[in-house]
TrEMBL record:
MF terms (GO), sorted A to Z: transaminase activity
Keywords annotated in UniProt: Aminotransferase, Transferase
Annotated GO biological process: carboxylic acid biosynthetic process
Organism for this UniProt entry: Leptothoe spongobia TAU-MAC 1115
Entry keyword annotation includes Calcium: no
InterPro entries: Aminotrans_IV, Aminotransferase-like, BCAT-like_C, BCAT-like_N, Class-IV_PLP-Dep_Aminotrnsfr
The protein's name in its UniProt record: Aminotransferase class IV
Gene3D superfamilies attached to this UniProt entry: 3.30.470.10, D-amino Acid Aminotransferase, subunit A, domain 2
SUPFAM superfamilies: D-aminoacid aminotransferase-like PLP-dependent enzymes (SSF56752)
Family, per entry: Belongs to the class-IV pyridoxal-phosphate-dependent aminotransferase family.
Signal sequence interval, chain numbering: none
Keyword Cytoplasm attributed: no
Length: 270
């Protein structure tokens, strides 16, 4: 495995880190995961600037030193030759750790057929500091592991009354000509793809309505989004003893996919 750490490329070498490092002892680091299109950080779909802003804002909020951004750029450009998905982690010390991985298996099939998700209920699945993507991702990881035991691809994080997001992305539901996505005030991560879609959909999206069971039961189709998968239809939700079914071939999905890729289309037309 190849990775980049603190300004240096490592190939098939173990990572040495002090056991007392706050990143290891307390999860004191922030990260972002990006899909690099056409091996270019500047490709509009890569959203490089948005990923950098996410990291920078969290680092500033926590009063940590900013990373050496030139090292970050060189590290990302080096690793994107291996795989298209990069995870950029910034430790509380300001050091950068960058890893690369391939796209998820069967992604194209899942984007066409849809997936099963499981609703995670209970305080053990509540994310801490939801407005920041910290490396303390234990609740999300626990939810994902529980979802797999139920035969699901992902988990929906929830409170007693609301659905919030999946363990890896933001939720979208379609009803009566509008797309809905849970409000940030409910306590969820402001995803980069989520922000792009809201900007593109404008008046077609409703962002201020909490996702109660009464609301989600009315949706015609359901998807989740993140920077790696784009949008992924959900055809079945396992919610306790309830099973909710949604269309994975709804006409609204095609329009939403076009919205996701519109930045690249605009660039080609310029």
């Amino acid at each position: 495995m190849s990775y980049w750490f603190a300004g240096k490329l490592y190939e098939n070498e173990p990572l040495s880190i002090d056991p007392k490092n706050p990143a290891l002892a307390y999860g004191a680091s922030v990260f972002t995961t990006m899909r690099v299109y056409e091996r270019s950080l500047e490709h509009p779909l890569t959203a490089w600037r948005e990923h950098c802003d996410r990291i920078s804002q969290s680092v500033q909020a926590f009063s940590w030193p900013q990373p050496n951004w030139q090292n970050v750029i060189v590290g990302c450009q080096t690793l994107l030759t291996y795989h298209p998905v990069l995870r950029l982690t910034i430790l509380a010390s300001g050091q950068e750790l960058i890893t690369a991985r391939p796209l998820p298996q069967n992604l194209e099939q899942q984007q066409t057929e849809g997936v099963v998700v499981w609703v995670a209920q209970g305080p053990q699945y509540q994310r801490c500091l939801p407005s920041h993507k910290t490396s303390n991702y234990l609740p999300c990881w626990l939810a994902m592991q529980a979802a797999k035991k139920h035969g699901a691809r992902d988990a929906i994080l929830s409170t007693d009354k609301e659905w919030l997001e999946t363990s890896t992305g933001n939720l979208w539901g379609y009803q009566s000509g509008h797309w809905w996505t849970p409000p940030l005030t409910s306590g969820l991560l402001p995803g980069i793809t989520r922000a792009r879609l809201i900007k593109t959909l404008t008046s077609q999206v409703i962002t201020d309505q909490p996702w109660t069971l009464d609301l989600v039961a009315k949706f015609e189709c359901l998807v989740y989004s993140n920077c790696v998968v784009g949008i992924l239809p959900i055809h079945t939700v396992l919610f306790g003893n309830i099973k909710l079914n949604y269309s994975s071939t709804h006409e609204g999905l095609s329009a939403l996919r076009q919205m996701v890729y519109r930045p690249a289309m605009r660039k080609r037309n310029c």
